Amino acid sequence: MIDAFKMVLSGTLAGIILVLAIVRLGLTSAPLTSGQTGDIPDVDFLCRFQVLQGQARVSTQGATLAPFSSPQEVMLSCGKTEVNAASSLFLTSDIQAPLTGLSVILFWRTAEHPEDFLTLDLPPGTRTLFLGRQDGWQGRIIEYGLGIRGESEQPILIRELSLRTASVSSLIETWWTEWTSVQPWNTGSINFLDYPKARLWPSPILVLALWWLLASVLALLMFRFRRRPALIAATMYFCCAWGSLDLLWSRELTAKGERSLSPAQAQRQVISEQDAGLLDFAARIRPLLSPRDRILVLAPDPFARLRLAYHLLPLNGLAYLGDPPPSQRLREGDIIVTLIDQDPAAPGQIHPSAFTAPGMKAALIHSNPLGHVYRLISSSATARKPGK
Amino acid sequence: MTEILFACIGLLLPWWLGLALLGWPGQGDTSTKVVVLGCGYFVGFFVLSLLIRMTAGVDWLQTPWGVTGLVLLFSPILVIYGRKTRWWFWGAESGRDHGQTGSRIANLLFLGLLLLLLWRLAILGWQTLYLPLFPWDAWASWGFKAKVWFLSGPLTDFLEAEEWLNGGSQTAYTVQGVDYPPTVSLIQFWMAKLIGAWRESLVNLPWAAAFLALGIGYYGLLRRAGGSTLAAMSGTYLLLSLPLLETHVALAGYADLWLCACFGLAALALFDWLEQREIRYALLALMMALVCTQIKQEGLVWSLMLLPPLLLGWLSIGRALSLIGAVFVGLALIWLSGILHLELEAGLLILSPQEIALPGMGHSRLAYQPLWSTVFREFFLEQHWHLLWYGAVAALVLGARPAFRHKALTAALLVLLQGLGFLFLVFFFSEHSAWARQVTAINRVALPLAPIIVYSMLLTWKAHLGSSSTSETAGG
Known about the structure:
Distance between the termini of chain A: 82 Å
Distance between the termini of chain B: 67 Å
Structural class of chain A: alpha+beta
Oligomer: heterodimer
Shape of chain A: extended
Order of helices and strands of chain A: HEEEEEEEEEEEEHHHHHEHEEEE
Number of strands of chain A: 17
C-alpha cells in the first residue's frame, strides 16, 4: 500500500515539475508581458471582412458563406490593416462545415514585402494556432484573410477569426490544439506523420518521455534504490505514458480517413481534386488510343504524369521522367500526352516541337484544358482533326 | 456485396493453404497453435504467389478459378499428408502451456487490451476499405504492376524506362521499381482476380488481415517466450499500437508491413528455437526468412541478420559472442583496407571505405552524412513510434547484463544491434542518406526492428524482475 502511494506520489511530483517547466518554456516563447501588450487590442476579423471572391453574409452567428459549387474557392480579407506580428501571436478560429474535404488557409502580406502573399494551412478543427514561429509572420502585417476551398456544395459558418496577444487561455488553447489537431493523410504519410512544425509546445512524445524518466528517477529515490518496486513503478509510468500517447493517436486515426477524402472522392477512388481531373482526362482520351500504342506522358509535375499513366492502364504508357526523350527513340505512331500544369507558377508545358523526330511531326488529336494528345506521324501525312 | 464475399474468400483461401502446409491445428500446445495460425497467413500468401508465378504460362489456369482450384485441390492433400506423416507442426507434441495465466485483474486487463486491439483493427479495416490506393509507391509501383497483371495477364514483363523506349518489347510495360520482388503485387493481383474487378480498397484488404495475423503470431511467440497472457498481450499491444505500423495498414499498398511482420515472426521463431530447441521453430524461422527475401530487396539483408544469432544454437553465449565479434572485426578490417573487389556471377561485391556493392543490392558510394538531428527527431520526438525508441535504449542499456544469461535476449539484442548498424550505414554513409534527409524512408526502413525492440524490452524487463525478486528474497 505504501509502495503504491510512493508510486503515485513520484508520478504526480514528476508531472507537476514538468508542467511548471513547460509552462515556463511556453511563456518564454510567447511572453504574457510582451513589450507591445496593450498597444494592439485583439483584432476581430469578422467585424470588417471583405469578400474578395465568392459570396458571404454576416449574421449574429458569424459569417456564413454561400454554398459553393465544386470545386471553388472563397477568399475573405480583412482589408487594409496594421497589425504588429510580434504581439499578435495567436490566431483563434472557429470554422464549421457540415461536410469534409474542406481546405482552409490563412494568408497575409507584410509591409516589408507587400507583393508576397504568405500562406499557412489551417488543419480542420484548428482552434488556436501559434504564429510566432511561422515563416514570414514578422514585422507589420498589412493584410490577412482566409482562403477556403472545397469540392462538395456546402454552407460554411465562420464563427470566429481573430488575432490575439498572449494570455493564459491562448497558451492553453494552443497546447490543446497542437496536441489534438488532426492532419489528413497525404501521399507522404507512409513515410512520416505530419505534425505542426512551427509549434509552441514540445511534442507529446518528448513531454511524456521526460515525465517517464523523471518519475522513474523519483521513484528510485523514494524506494531507496530497491530495484523491484522501482522497476515496477518505471514500468507503470511507461505504460501510462504509452497509453496516453495511444489515446491521442487513436483519436487522430479515427478522424484521419474522412478528413483526407470526401465520400465522393473515396467512391470514385481518386486521391485529390487534381487526381479526379486526371481520371476524367484519361477517360476522355482512352477511346482515341489503341492497345498497341506507345504512350508517353510528359508533364512537369511528377504526380500528374505518373497518375495519368496509372489511370490509362492497360494502355501501355510511360510517365517520362525529365525532358522529352531524344528524337531517335521516338517512332511513328507514338502517342505523346502533354499535361498543362494547373499551377500558374509552375514551369510551362512542354511544346510539341520539343519531341518531333526527323521526318515526323506531331499531329494534335485531342485537346482540352488539362492537356493535349499528339500522334507522331510522317511529315508528309495529313493531321487528323482534334477530337472533342 | 458479392465483391466483398469474394474478397473474403481471397483472404481465407491462402490463409488456409498456409495453415495446411504448416500444420494447424495439429497436436501442439495452445501457444504453438496460435503461432501457426498467425504465421500461416504469411506463408500461405507466399506459397500462393509462387503458385501464380509457376502457372503464369498455363492458359487454362488464368481464369479467376484456375489458381483457386489448385489451392482447393492442394490444401486438403496437404492436410491429409501432414496428418499422416506428422510433418512440421502436424507432429508437434502437446506440451506444457507456456507462461502463467494471471489473476482476475490481469485477466480483465488482458480482455481490455484485446478489445482495444480489435477496435483498432475495425478502424484500420474501415480506413482500408474507405481509401483507394493512396500513398505514392502504392499506386506508382506495387499497385501499378498488380493492375497491369490483372488487366493484361499475369507476369507481363516490365522493363526499365530506357529499354522500353528503345523498343525492347512490344508487350512489356515500364514502371518505377522494375526490380522489386513480385510477391506483394501478386497479392493484389490475386485479390483483383477473385473479385473480378480492380477495386483499390478491396485489393488492399490483405493488409488489414496481415495486421491481425501479425498480432496473433506475435502473441503466440511471446507466450512461448514465457510471458503471461497479460505480458504477451501487452507486448502485442505495444507493437500493434505503433502509429507508423498502423499507417501502413490504413494506407495499404506498401511492402514494409509485410516485411516487418515476416522478419519479426522469423526472428522470434529463431529465438524460440534457441531457448526450446524445437526444430519445427527453426524451420519456421527459415521459412519466414525466405519469405522476407521475396517481399523487398532489402529483405535479404534483414534475413542475413538472423545468421549470427544462429551460432547461439551450438555455442555458449560467451563463445558465440567472441566468434561474432571476431567476424565483425575481420569484416571491418577488410572494409577499411578496401581489398575486397570481386566480380561474381551474381554481380559486383565491393567493400571499401569509399564504396560498397552487394550482388543484387546495387552499388553505393560511401561518405559520412551527419544526420543525427533528423534521426533523433524522427525516432524520439515525432509521433511515429510512441516511446518505442526510448524503450530500445532502455533494453540495450539494461538488457546487456542479463543477455549473458539468456540466449534469446542475447540473440534479440544482437539482431537489434545489427539492424541499427544497417540503418547507420544506409542513412549516415550511403547515397541513400537522402531518404533520411527528405524523410522519405527513414521511418519505414526501420519498421522491421519494431517487433525485435518490443521483444527485447519484455525480456529485459522479465530478466530484471526475476533477478531482483530472487536477490531480494535471498537478501531477506
